[in-house]
Amino acid sequence: MWTAGEKQFYVFALLDTILKHVPSHWRIGALYDIGCQMDQTLKKWRFMLEWLPHLERGVSIFHAYSHQWACQLWYHPRKSELWGLSDGEGCEWFWSELFRLIPGLWVTGYHWCLFILGLQVEHIDEGKRMGMGKWLQGRIDQLQHCLEEAEMKLSDCSPVT
Question: What InterPro entries does its record include (predicted)?
């Protein structure tokens, strides 16, 4: 938990803060590059056992493929209803939209940093909202094509007698 590399205590501190501020009946999802190791740490050291019923652990899809086979089976985001059809890479995409601001923000004050990040998040949000109709139409077209292909293949099949 304290060794170099992925320092799990940062994740535990973040989850502790989140879980203190949400209703106790909520389930919280934590997609983390080493979510499988985080889960093992929680169980091995009997650490924060009160979290376990409220916490869904997972490994984002691209990280899952670099882990052992068991990690892919147990912690893949598509194996849990909580994640829906998410591949778990949304946060990494979002970070890629923000990271270029970081060097310039090192020299600003705390509140100015929050202000600039807030503006950038609003800009990203507005861009995504403006493109949502086009994205949705593309998904509908793709699904329509899949449906037509499936119906064609089914019509080629002979009925079972």
Answer: KDZ (IPR040521)
Q: Are 59 and 36 in contact (CB under 8 A)?
A: yes
Give 30's strand partners.
Answer: 57
For 20-59, b/e burial (b = at least 16 CB within 10 A) is: eeeeeeeeebbbbbbbbbbbebbeeeeeeeebeebbbbbb
- Would you kindly state where each structural domain of the chain is located, as residue ranges? 1-88, 89-156
Inter-helix orientation angle 110-156/90-98, to 10°: 140
Tokens of 34: 């080493």
To the question of pTM greater than 0.70 for the whole model, the response is no
For 56-115, the pLDDT digits (tens) are: 888 876 665 666 777 777 887 777 787 776 666 676 678 788 888 988 888 989 999 999
d(CA 135, CA 129): 10
